[in-house]
Design a protein that fits this description.
Strand order of the largest sheet: 1-11-7-13-5-4-2-3
Strand content: 15-25%
Number of strands: 19
Number of helices: 14
Distance between the termini: 44 Å
């Protein structure tokens, strides 16, 4: 299932974005064709709800999310036609002409006797060779992260990343009749399957690991009987939680099956969040709590001082931290998860080049933030290397300069862009309240920003405007 892959250097970045008000909020036709779209792009929530229609979001998250599979059968020809327009077998010819490569962009695989056989060659992919593998070898063609090439998938996944607040990857699987591409396995992501062409027969099994945190192949001896047997037809959607064991095969009489896998919530658990916040939490607490600065018993690391008293001491310190968190005495800050998400997600969907918009803000102006869903604020130690004690500063991180072409591919941006993304806009800690004002307000007068000096108000708004994050109303 789709995850970030480690691959060679990607193609040149195309940095595209524009103001939220200028983005196409709801289009009736897909970007790549004249096919009407059943999806509503007015907001991230409306996009997701239209994706799982006729089910409502409250029911989905209450009864299915992280709990059990869901099969939505559609007999709507508009949905089936739109799904097919997202990606179809005939698209491979034009994509091969763009220089896609084995391993990086495409895998050719087949499940034989319960094991995956990789049929990749080296270098660039030729459409004629793919067609031969499909027909003669009954192989599955797996296309990695097609949103890098298909605008409508970029449009969908960018909105879904806003909705979930998490990365959303995708893969395309094209499988000929009476063939299976992958062995029985489970994934560490929440999975949404969209059947684009043909039909696919799915067998789902109860998890051996609930809400799994890693990918794993399972032996058929361990999994027992299927909990669900589903025939997906064009226009259908299938959801199942991470850890759900599954396998899929194209039935006889169906020329080929094409489906899109959308995946999300990899490493987005409470455990992951605790791993993220604990270092800064302990560091902050150690500055004020003498008990955390006291030395551990002699020879503890050598195993000579292990015992119940030491376990109790650790439990006491953790309980004290938890009490302070619960009563609001201890601030909790997520940094690495925020940075990972914002630096790797898709840029805003737009066909326009991103530039600062409108007039330069002045004290008498009213302003508002653009792309709020593509921006996060972190409070963390300054990255400046000095001999002085490390001070806390504010970083405003955004995804407007991210590269669509490297989305979910594990690639590094060029050095300049990578530095911009990793460092972000930096402000003194005293600017935190003013930034929160801008985040929470629809629009705000520059003069009303809670900063002591007029110069600070102007410098803050000018910095955000220069990054295309703010406009004058």
């Amino acid at each position: 299932m789709p995850k970030r892959s480690k691959v060679k250097n990607g193609k040149d970045a195309r940095r595209c974005s524009s103001d939220n008000e200028q983005l196409p909020p709801k289009q009736s036709r897909s970007e790549d064709s004249n096919t009407p779209s059943p999806l509503c792009f007015h907001s991230p929530a409306s996009l997701f709800e239209s994706l799982i229609q006729p089910m409502k979001m409250e029911q989905f998250f209450g009864e299915y999310w992280e709990k059990k599979p869901l099969h939505l059968q559609r007999s709507d020809p508009i949905t089936a036609s739109y799904y097919q327009s997202l990606f179809q077998l005939s698209d491979l010819r034009s994509l091969c002409s763009q220089g896609v490569e084995y391993y990086t962009d495409i895998n050719v695989v087949r499940c034989i006797n319960g094991k995956k056989k990789v049929l990749n060659k080296e270098g660039q992919v030729k459409n004629s060779v793919l067609s031969k593998n499909l027909v003669e070898n009954k192989a599955t063609i797996q296309f990695h992260q097609p949103q890098r090439f298909k605008d409508e998938l970029w449009r969908i996944q960018e909105k879904l990343e806003c909705f979930f607040g998490a990365l959303v990857g995708s893969n395309i699987y094209i499988t000929p009749q009476e063939s299976q591409g992958l062995p029985v396995h489970y994934d560490d992501v929440e999975v949404f399957i969209l059947q684009l062409e043909g039909e696919k027969h799915w067998l789902l099994y109860n998890p051996t690991v609930q809400l799994a945190t890693e990918y794993s192949i399972e032996s058929e001896e361990r999994i027992g009987s299927p909990s669900h047997e589903i025939l997906l037809k064009a226009g259908d959607l299938l959801y199942f939680p991470r850890g759900t064991i599954h396998q899929a095969k194209t039935p006889a009489g169906v020329d080929h099956s094409t489906h899109l896998t959308l995946s999300t919530y990899q490493k987005m658990s409470w455990g992951d969040l605790l791993l993220d916040i604990f270092p800064s939490l302990l560091c902050d607490s150690s500055r004020t709590e003498v008990s955390l600065r006291e030395g551990i018993p002699r020879q503890l690391l050598l195993g000579s001082s292990e015992g119940l008293d030491n376990i109790r001491r650790l439990a006491t310190e953790l309980t004290s931290l938890a009490d302070k968190m619960e009563t609001g005495q201890q601030e909790v800050r997520s940094t690495h998860m925020k940075r990972d998400f914002i630096s790797n997600r898709l840029p805003p969907y737009s066909q326009e080049e991103l530039t600062p918009s409108g007039k330069i803000p002045a004290l008498e102006d009213v302003v508002h933030l653009r792309f709020k869903e593509h921006m996060v604020i972190t409070v963390e130690p300054s990255h400046d290397r000095t001999d002085e004690a490390t001070e806390l500063v504010i970083f405003v991180l955004h995804s407007l300069k991210n590269q669509r072409e490297s989305h979910m591919m594990g690639e590094s941006c060029d050095a300049e862009v990578e530095q911009d993304i990793s460092r972000g806009l930096q402000f003194p800690l005293s600017h935190l309240q003013a930034l929160r004002q801008l985040q929470q307000a629809e629009q705000l007068a520059v003069a009303q920003l809670q900063l002591p000096k007029q110069e600070d108000k102007l410098n803050l708004t000018l910095a955000l405007w220069s990054e295309s994050l703010l406009v004058v109303v």
